[in-house]
Amino acid sequence: MPLSFAQAGETRKVLSLQGDDTTKQHLLDMGFVSGQIVQIIGNSNQGLILSIKGVRLALNRGLAHRINVA
């Protein structure tokens, strides 16, 4: 399931990344590695607010759609 479909309050685990090499590297640099736990704090039409490794970050829907989670 793409991370963009997750709801606020959920906790998900990163399974894989989609996209070109530049996009994948950008997501890896942000901490989206396989097995990483991500907490969804907010999800709106503009994007998501997430907590990963104790750090809050905003992610637009396009990038969130490239992260597959369980």
Molecular structure report:
The chain has a single domain (3-69), classed as Ferrous iron transport protein A (FeoA) (SH3 type barrels). Helix content is 19%, strand content 41%. The chain has two helices and five strands, in the order βαβββαβ. It has helices spanning 21-29, 61-64, and strands at residues 11-17, 37-43, 47-52, 55-60, 67-69. A five-stranded antiparallel sheet has the order 4-3-2-1-5. It starts with 10 loop residues before the first strand and ends with a strand.
Largest sheet: 5 strands, antiparallel
Order of helices and strands: EHEEEHE
Q: How many separate structural domains?
A: 1
CATH superfamily caption? Ferrous iron transport protein A (FeoA)
Can you identify the CATH class?
A: Mainly Beta
Fold-level CATH name: SH3 type barrels
The CATH architecture is: Roll
Q: How does the SSE layout of this entry go?
A:
Layout: E1 11-17, H1 21-29, E2 37-43, E3 47-52, E4 55-60, H2 61-64, E5 67-69
Antiparallel strand pairs: 1-2, 1-5, 2-3, 3-4
Kindly list the characteristics that best describe this protein.
alpha+beta, globular, SH3 type barrels, 70 residues
Please outline what is shown here:
The protein is built from 2 helices and 5 strands.
